[in-house]
Amino acid sequence: MTRGNANVGGSDVEMVPITADLVAPSRAPAQVPAELLNFKTDTYRIHPGDTLIVTVWDHPELTTPAGSQQQAVTNGRLVQPDGTFYYPYAGKLNVKGMSIEDLRSTLTSRLAQYLRNPQLDINVVGYGSRVSLQGAFVDTTPQDVTTVPLTLSQAIGRARINAEQADLAGFVLTRDGRNYPLDLDALNRDGSVAPQIYLKPGDNLFLPFNDRKEVYVIGEVLRPQAITFKTTDLSLTQALGRTGGLNPATSKGNAVYVIRGIEDKERTPARVYHLEAKSPAAFAVADRFSLKPGDVVWVGPAGVTRWNRFLSQLLPLSGIISNAASAQYDLGRGN
Fold it and tell me: Which GO cellular component does the record give, naming just one (predicted)?
């Protein structure tokens, strides 16, 4: 293969040498959208589906109507899907979005019409607000958003990432109908730690599988194979290293190619990147060349390898011809 533009099957294929000028000098730092960083949880807000238990001191008939031997949830009162909450003598209240202190103050003022100096305490014993999880987690059970703020790192830690099948770079947080892509690998790379992101009720966490994130290494390497990767990128050096490297007996050092298909035929033609790997120094450049899913890395054979393979195919053929000629001679003598 030669450099420059080539025409294959009526399509232009651009040949690009892999040099120090081509590869990126450094990775750009990962960014987190400002709206995610600016969201802070302050006071817990009551949510539909919460179960509240109201303790009215010196009035057990209001505190534990089901009996003191029952569990707290049994004596609790559910916040309805429309955000309303019923309590004796106070009636039906719209408590959605209220803080615990707001509800305590409201109930105190309502009960004061029937009780002398009522003393109340309110606790949440069941939570209706949750964060959902999908994808390459070990445990995708929805997680409660409680009175203790829940962070993204805590939710991921509880769910546990499937290290073999996850695509860390493809993580998406969905909030209020908007998707926020977050590269978990880039945010926690080179000694940095991802900033704290607080979750809110209704958030959805999606971690895709990496089964479609593959590169293919073929040709004169020790172990040709398809390689999946879970990180932001995979360097050419890493890909060759996972396959055992170039075959020292059969490979051609200056015939290492990365074949990248057509994404947008009108704007971006297919490209073949060429690495001259005769010198070990070439792998310093290859270490900064990032592969993309679907790339094909091909290592060509040395000239002597092609000649040996030609001979291996030619010798059986010559043997067949020799045997046929010998048989024909023997038949001729027999006649």
Answer: cell outer membrane
